[in-house]
Design a protein that fits this description.
This protein has about 210 residues and is α/β, with parallel strands linked by helices. The chain is built from seven helices and seven strands.
Length: about 210
Amino acid sequence: MRTDNIAIETYRYYSTLEGNQYIASEFALKVILEIIHHYKVKNILELGVGIGSISYSVFEYAQNSKRDIHYVGTETNLFCLDVLPKYLNEFYEKLTIYNEIRELSDKDKFDVIIIDGKDDNMEFLEKLISKNGIILIEGFRINQLNFIREIFPNSIYTRVISNYKNPVYGPISPDNYAGGVQLIFVDPTLKQKMNYLTYRIGTAIKYRLRALK
């Protein structure tokens, strides 16, 4: 199954669940899965698992592609912690969850870190990300973005945006464009620099297309 189809099916499923008002956008799920597939990611950390839409899509992708992905997340919200076993279903046992990132050993290194919530100890990211790791911020969390760019002065960054509105079957208004992500390569390789340019040019084109509509 293609990553886009997994993202769409996951978004449809999570749109029917209680607590859906804070799930990642369908477009954000597409970008996250695209990055995981393109770089053959094996170790993922998500700050703010929420009710599990991102982790569910990744586990679904791993199952379909017959890949082993180590997934660790943080969450403190009691409602989210209560519904995660039910919403993730058989995938729940594959998720390792902590209250906050300072509980993780600095021996753990993650290829991709997804930020989908708040954590007061984000300075720990420097110890937890692999040398050429990638950080994805769901939505446009400017304060977190600025903090991360200070931690990683050699990083390169671009927004990745959609060119379509939110689907009518989701909890977010279909009058608005589907939310994007902030993409950060902390210590970019040549391959990552090329990928960055592709996303950056694509984002610039989409902004112009939006202006014409």
